[in-house]
UniProtKB/TrEMBL annotation:
Disulfide bonds join 114-118. The active site is at residues 101, 293. Keywords: Aspartyl protease, Disulfide bond, Hydrolase, Protease, Signal. The keyword Protease applies. GO terms for biological process: proteolysis. This is Cathepsin D. Residues 1-19 form the signal peptide. The gene is CTSD_0. The lineage of its organism: Eukaryota, Fungi, Dikarya, Basidiomycota, Agaricomycotina. Belongs to the peptidase A1 family. Residues 83-403 form the Peptidase A1 domain. Coiled coil: none annotated. PROSITE patterns: PEPTIDASE_A1. GO terms for molecular function: aspartic-type endopeptidase activity.
C-alpha cells in the first residue's frame, strides 16, 4: 500500500542542569575531589540565555495568557459510524466539522480546489483568510483505504475557547472516495507529533505543551445510537473536553494506564478478554499493543485471536462476501464481552457488539480481523469500546484512563435531542504553534521509515461498509 507518511523521532533535550557540588546534610564528608569553580556572572548570563532559548524552542514562542478548560459538543454520524466536533480556521474565523481522531496526528481539511469526492462538503478557501500562510510544501496522508493530499499551510485555529496561531494544517484538493461524508470537512488528529505526516506539532499538543490547559488531559464521552432504529443520520454525540475531565459524566475513579510505548499512537497493552464468562487467549508483548482510537468505528485485531474469541460464541462463523474478515453469530445470543488493558475489566455492551443484523438469525460482530502495517499496533480499539466508558487521554504522564459512565452520560444514549451547532467558543487562551520545524533540533526526519496511520482507515472502510448496510 503506498504511503508517504514519515516517522519522526522525538529526541528529547539533554537535561541542562547546573552541577552544584552536593552538600550532604547531617554529616561532614571530606572533599577529596576538586569542587567546581564558582560561576562568574558572565557564565551565569550565558547559561541563562541558553536555558531560555531552549525552553522557548521546546515550548513555543508564546506562553499562554492563562490556563483554561473547554468543551466541544460532538455529533454522532450514521449510528455511531463516526464522531465529529467543530473548530474554526482563519481570520475572520470560519467553522468546519472535523472527525476527532485519537488515532492520527494531523489536522487537514478539504480546500476549495477539491472537486472530486467533496460533494456538499464545506471546503476551506485560504484566500479568504488574512492570516493564512503557506510555503506550498506537499501534504500527503494515507490510510488503509483512502488518502488525501494537497499542500501544507498554517493559520489560526480555534476550538472550545482555545486558539493556536500559526497552526500547521493540510489543505487537500485530492480526497479519495468515501473519505469525507458531508457535513464533515476534514480530520483533527489527537495523537502525538511523532506520527504526524506533516511533521508539525498537533493542535492539542501545542496547547498542552505550552501549559494552556488546567490539567493535561482530554476527555471523551461518546453516545450510542447503533441499536436505535429511529436514529437520524446526525444525532448528539456526547462531548470532548480539553484541560479537564467532566466529573458529571463518570462515577468512581478514573483508572489511568501508562502507555506501552513512547508517545505516538495512544497505545495500551491488551491483557485480558472474556466472552460469555470464559477467558480468551490474548497475545503478550508487542503483539498485544492496542491503539485506543476515537476515529475508528469498530475493533480490529489479528485473525487468530478473533477466531479463538468467536469460538466461544456457539454458532459463530466467518463472514463471506462483503463480510469477509468479519464473523456472523446467532442473533438470539446475547454476547457478554469484557476487555482489560492491565487494570479493570470493561464490558462492551451487547448493543455495541451487534454491529448489524444480516438475516433473521445472522448478526455481524463488531470485532473483525485486521492486519495492520508494520509500524502500527496489531489491535485497534475504536468506538465500539469507547461508547462504554468515559475515556481520558493524558499528556503527562502519558496514559489513557477509563472510568464508568454516570447515569447522566448513559441517559444521553438513544435520545432524539437537537444536534449541536458549532461550539467553537470565545477565545480564552491563545498559544503560538512551534510550527513545522520551529522546534529545530528536536525532530529527526527518518527517510525511508514509514508508518501506516490507522486514523480513519477503518472508519473509512466501515463508512463504506455501513453505507452498503444502511
Ligand atoms: C503528494 O501530494 C502531491 C500534491 O497533491 C501529489 O502531487 C503527489 O503525487 C503526492 N505524492 C504521493 C506519494 O502520493
Ligand atoms: C441499546 O443498548 C443499551 C445497552 O445495551 C440498552 O440499555 C438500551 O436499552 C438499548 N436501546 C434500545 C432502543 O434497544
Ligand atoms: C459536563 O457535562 C454536563 C452533562 O453533559 C454538562 O451539562 C456540563 O455543561 C459539562 N460541564 C462542562 C464544564 O462542560
Ligand atoms: C459478563 O462477563 C463478566 C466476566 O465473566 C461477568 O463478571 C459478568 O457478570 C457478565 N455479565 C453478564 C450480564 O452476564
Ligand atoms: C509560522 O511557522 C513557520 C514554520 O515554523 C515559520 O516559518 C513562520 O515564521 C511562522 N510565522 C509566524 C507569523 O509566526
Amino acid at each position: 500500500m503506498p504511503t508517504s507518511l514519515a516517522l519522526f523521532l522525538a529526541v528529547s533535550f539533554p537535561a541542562f542542569t547546573l552541577s552544584h557540588p552536593t552538600v550532604p546534610s547531617g554529616q561532614s564528608v571530606p572533599l577529596h575531589h576538586r569542587s567546581r569553580p564558582q560561576r562568574t556572572p558572565e557564565e551565569w548570563g550565558l547559561w541563562a540565555k541558553a536555558h531560555r532559548e531552549r525552553l522557548t524552542a521546546k515550548y513555543g514562542a508564546g506562553q499562554p495568557e492563562k490556563r483554561s478548560t473547554g468543551t466541544n459538543l460532538i455529533t454522532n454520524q450514521n449510528s455511531d459510524a463516526s464522531f465529529f466536533g467543530s473548530l474554526a480556521i482563519g481570520t475572520p474565523p470560519v467553522s468546519y466539522n472535523v472527525i476527532l481522531d485519537t488515532g492520527s496526528a494531523d489536522l487537514w481539511l478539504a480546500d476549495s480546489n477539491c472537486v472530486t469526492n467533496c460533494d456538499e462538503v464545506a471546503t476551506f478557501n485560504p484566500s479568504q483568510s488574512s492570516t493564512f500562510t503557506t510555503n506550498n510544501a506537499a501534504f500527503n496522508i494515507s490510510y488503509g483505504s483512502g488518502k488525501a493530499s494537497g499542500t501544507i499551510g498554517a493559520d489560526n485555529i480555534q476550538m472550545a475557547g482555545f486558539s493556536v496561531s500559526n497552526q500547521t494544517l493540510g489543505l487537500c484538493d485530492t480526497v479519495s472516495d468515501g473519505l469525507l461524508t458531508a457535513p464533515i470537512s476534514g480530520l483533527l488528529g489527537l495523537a502525538f507529533k511523532t506520527i504526524a505526516s506533516s511533521g508539525a506539532t498537533p493542535f492539542w499538543e501545542a496547547l498542552v505543551s505550552a501549559g494552556a490547559w488546567d490539567s493535561p488531559v482530554m476527555g471523551f464521552q461518546l453516545t450510542r445510537f447503533i441499536n436505535d432504529t429511529t436514529a437520524r443520520s446526525l444525532e448528539p454525540g456526547g462531548s470532548f473536553s480539553m484541560g479537564f475531565v467532566n466529573t458529571t459524566l463518570f462515577t468512581g475513579d478514573i483508572e489511568y494506564l501508562e502507555l506501552a510505548t513512547d508517545p505516538s499512537y495512544w497505545i495500551l497493552p491488551l491483557t485480558a478478554m472474556t466472552v460469555q464468562g470464559n477467558s480468551v487467549q490474548v497475545p503478550t508483548g508487542v503483539a498485544a499493543y492496542s491503539a485506543i482510537d476515537t476515529g475508528t468505528t469498530l475493533v480490529g485485531g489479528p485473525a487468530e485471536y478473533m477466531t479463538s474469541m468467536y469460538s466461544q460464541i456457539p454458532g459463530a462463523a466467518p463472514g463471506t462476501g462483503n463480510f469477509d474478515g468479519y464473523y456472523t453469530y446467532p442473533c438470539d445470543t446475547t454476547v457478554n464481552l469484557t476487555v482489560s488493558f492491565g487494570g479493570k475489566s470493561w464490558p462492551i455492551s451487547e448493543a455495541d457488539f451487534r454491529m448489524t443484523q444480516l438475516t433473521q438469525n445472522q448478526c455481524i460482530g463488531a470485532f473483525f480481523n485486521l492486519q495492520t502495517g508494520r509500524s502500527a499496533p496489531d489491535w485497534i480499539f475504536g468506538d465500539t469500546l469507547l461508547k462504554n466508558v468515559y475515556s481520558v487521554f493524558r499528556y503527562d504522564p502519558p496514559s489513557v484512563g477509563f472510568a464508568q459512565l454516570s447515569n447522566v452520560a448513559l441517559a444521553m444514549n438513544g435520545v432524539n435531542a437537537p444536534v449541536p451547532s458549532a461550539t467553537v467558543g470565545s477565545v480564552a487562551t491563545t498559544v503560538t504553534a512551534t510550527g513545522r520545524s520551529g522546534n529545530s533540533g528536536v525532530s529527526m526526519h527518518m527517510p525511508g521509515s514509514s508508518v501506516v496511520s490507522m486514523a480513519v482507515a477503518w472508519t473509512v472502510g466501515l463508512l463504506a461498509g455501513l453505507s452498503i448496510l444502511l
